[in-house]
Design a protein that fits this description.
The protein has 194 residues and is mainly beta. It has one helix at 2-19; strands spanning 23-25, 28-29, 42-45, 51-54, 60-62, 68-70, 79-86, 94-100, 103-108, 116-118, 126-136, 149-159, 164-176, 183-191. The chain is built from 1 helix and 14 strands. Strand 3 and strand 4 (51-54) form a beta hairpin.
Length: 194
Amino acid sequence: MFRKAIVFMLVLIFSMALSAGSIYLNGVKIDGVRDQEFKSVNVKIDKDGNIHISAPGYIVKTGDEQSQKASSPVTQAKSYFLVTQISTNGRGGYDIDLFINGNWIRKISNKDEQIVMDLTKHLQSGKNTIRLTGVKSKDSVADPLSTGFTEVIVGEGTAGKNNVVIDKPLINYKFFAKDANPIIKDFEIEAIVK
């Protein structure tokens, strides 16, 4: 009798294992995956016992052994800022136009104090072209003896309540007061945005 109970239990456990559903990550079956943790995901169990994990920011890659493993999360979107600085020796004397991917974004006047601007909404994921065009402002002339400048910095950063910190500068260009000619500078940056 005891032996029949053990056999019955083993058959029951085995049949339960066979009827268990599969696990899917973003629509891809990942039954063989072990020792993974997914954050910020949605989980749904369907009527057949299949577990569906919807995980934005995760992709599934298949390995050489035909086993499927979930990869690390895709790099998180970042924030991008423009910050201007005026040297302690004076301004650069330039009015500067900012273009992103061929679109005019704003004018930075020679008379402006420090500007801090979030550029994230103007960027696309991948390659972006940023153009700075500078012409001497109407009330400025080149001064070969001046060491003054207006600095334009574009970079990845974080915004606090009353400040912005550029964690990774991507562009750092100075418009000098000693220069007289119009300036056109193109920069390419890689961005990760939503």
